[in-house]
Design a protein that fits this description.
The chain has 250 residues and is α+β, with helices and mostly antiparallel strands. The protein has helices at residues 25-31, 39-43, 65-75, 93-107, 117-125, 245-249; strands spanning 8-11, 14-18, 49-53, 56-59, 176-182, 204-207, 224-225, 236-237, 241-242. The longest helix has 15 residues, at 93-107.
């Protein structure tokens, strides 16, 4: 069974301006007050911290239903009822991690995995502190979010004008994306930030938001999670990441 190679984007080593300054959180909440998101949800983004990340690779687009189908048939998992070029959704964290290992073995890239939360944010945000992958202002039509009224996924890569600074697509909208990071407050977080999200269906952080979410989820700093058991309904999918070592040794 042949699998197609991953369209990797190499993210160079560099600085991530992670999160949101604590003294700006209330202003962020006011800016998105029409979405109904309480200020407490934004406090998870604080404080703003500059961290240096090593180089890594991330897939340009989310894993599609067609790509997932090969894995599903090979491993006895459920084949998705979705167009082949749309992101696969409804995938548990364990199954997403299993897909990464399976694909890595077949491509000879054993380091294939889910991105960390910090890697995801760097791939979306680039070298600056921009609010959205494409810049500082929200613009309808650059991501598949609820304001478009589509109500379902679209083919991956359908919004090229919404690309991140590195050319990574769909970092906002279409499918909410698993990361490998377990939720925990950032070091130095406000004291009212919960130490665990016991109400989440899964403890791993998701990023980017899905077709059913509002524009607040398109923000590069926004930390999310799988808060409902029906992962298909809430649009949870994923994309791949890998170290750069393998590529340079070939």
């Amino acid at each position: 069974m042949s699998v197609e190679p991953v369209d990797w984007v190499e993210i160079p080593a560099g600085l991530l301006r992670r999160g949101t300054p604590a003294d700006e959180v209330e202003e962020v909440a006011r800016r998105y007050a029409d979405t109904g998101v309480p200020v407490e949800w934004y406090r998870k983004e604080a404080p703003r911290t500059e961290i240096r990340l090593p180089a890594f690779r991330i897939a340009r687009t989310q894993v599609t239903a067609g790509q997932w189908t090969l894995f599903a048939k090979a491993t006895g998992r459920q084949v998705p009822h979705a167009p082949a070029d749309h992101p696969v959704t409804g995938v548990s964290w364990d199954d997403a991690a299993a897909y990464c290992r399976w694909l890595g073995e077949r491509l000879g890239e054993p380091g294939t995995r889910l991105p960390t939360e910090d890697e995801w944010e760097r791939a979306a945000r680039g070298d600056d502190g921009r609010e959205f992958p494409w810049g500082t202002e929200y613009r309808t039509g650059l991501a598949n979010l609820v304001d478009l009224g589509i109500g379902t996924t679209t083919p991956v890569g359908s919004f090229p004008d919404g690309a991140s600074p590195f050319g990574v697509l769909d970092m906002a909208g279409n499918a909410d994306e698993w990361t490998s990071t377990l939720y925990a407050p950032y070091p130095g977080a406000p004291t009212e930030v919960p130490g665990a999200e016991d109400w989440a269906f899964d403890p791993h952080v998701t990023r980017g938001g899905a077709f059913r979410h509002d524009r607040d989820l398109a923000r590069c700093a926004r930390r999310h999670g799988a808060y409902e058991r029906d992962l298909k309904a809430i649009g949870v999918g994923f994309r791949l990441a890998a170290p750069v070592t393998w590529a340079r040794e070939q």
